Every structure is written in C-alpha cells, then in structure tokens.
C-alpha cells in the first residue's frame, strides 16, 4: 500500500464527519444565518491568503522541476481566485490586500494556519504538502458528495463547495498529482517521516471540521476569554 493509499484510508472517517457537520448540512438545506455565512466568508478568505505562503514554500523546497512548475501553477490559481474574491466583497468585508491583512483571525482559524505554517520549517515537500493537500482533498470530496444531494439552488448556497472540475479532479487534476508527489517523496523517506506526513494530513482534516464548527457557532476570542476569565460555561466550545 502506498503512503497516499494509507492516508486516504484513514481519512475516510474525517470525511464522513465533515459531511455530517451542521454547517455543511446547512449548505445543502440553505439553513444558515447571514451571520454564520459572514463569519465563514471572512475567516476563509484570510485562510486562503495564508495558503499563499505555504504554496511558496512548496515551490522553494520542490525536489524537481516538475514539482516546482505544478506548485507555481497552483499559486497562480490561488492568487487569481483571491483577486476575484476580494473584488466581490462588500466594503464591510476584506476587499483588497490591505484590508485582508488586517482581518481578525479567530481561534480555530489561527490554529489551522499555524499547523500548516509549522510544517515549513521542515524544508520538506513530504511534510508541507499534506498540510495543504488535505483541505484541497476534503473540499473536492465534499463537492463530489454534494452532487448527489438534493440541495437548494439559491445563492450563496448554490456555489458552496462547487470548486471541482478539470483543475482538481481526475488523473491529471491537482489532487491526484499532489498524492503522486507525496508517494514519490515517501520512497526516500523513513517510516517515521512517512507517519508524520500522514498525521499532518489527518490533523488538517480534523481542523477542517473545526473550521466549519467555528463558523456555525461563530466562535471568537471573546468567547474563549469569557470562559477563561469569567468562568462562563459556553456550550459553543
């Protein structure tokens, strides 16, 4: 069994858990509040901005030209996506690079971002890529699953988790190419390094669930502060 096959086998329960989360179910039914959607939108675009640095690291630490070219292509897609997303945002949300950098990063988002950034210090594609590829894989799999669900067709719900297609899916899509790179790098890695890469992928899958959860409950640093300083029993957490 290749490392990617092992990773995907152990990632299945995380995928099912993400499918069952109330926020994801709310995308299907259209039963999410404007406040929940706004929280998610603001935190997610800031998260996507953080991924620019992670992709840069993948380019820098690529072990061959084909890897570097693939990551460079994915970076170009990332930057164009962010540019178009910011252009659509209202004034109350991040709408340019300056306001995006000033976005308040809430607890779970910060934990997830730091989890990914921490892999950069390894200088290893095998360790950095799983932290990023897991979220890509999770969103694509959720999108594929949603195609078989009866979901509302009103915006903004209609376009949620609808980022599949030729760029990401299939034998020549980003997801498969990322797993091919992981398997290639694993060939010269120790068992410990392979296990570390797998656990990094699974942790990202877990944090994807908590990202939905934070948006559903709109968890902020003030919620954490109230529990710590005022002893409030906040069921959201």
UniProtKB/TrEMBL annotation:
Keyword terms of this UniProt record: Thiamine biosynthesis
Catalyzed reactions per annotation: thiamine + H2O = 5-(2-hydroxyethyl)-4-methylthiazole + 4-amino-5-hydroxymethyl-2-methylpyrimidine + H(+); 4-amino-5-aminomethyl-2-methylpyrimidine + H2O = 4-amino-5-hydroxymethyl-2-methylpyrimidine + NH4(+)
Pfam families (UniProt xref): TENA_THI-4 (PF03070)
GO molecular function: thiaminase activity
Pathway: Cofactor biosynthesis; thiamine diphosphate biosynthesis
GO biological process: thiamine biosynthetic process; thiamine diphosphate biosynthetic process
EC number(s) recorded for this UniProt protein: 3.5.99.2
Cleavable signal peptide: none
Subunit description: Homotetramer.
Record-stated family: Belongs to the TenA family.
UniProt name for this protein: Aminopyrimidine aminohydrolase
Source organism of this protein record: Lentilactobacillus kefiri (Lactobacillus kefiri)
Gene behind this protein: tenA
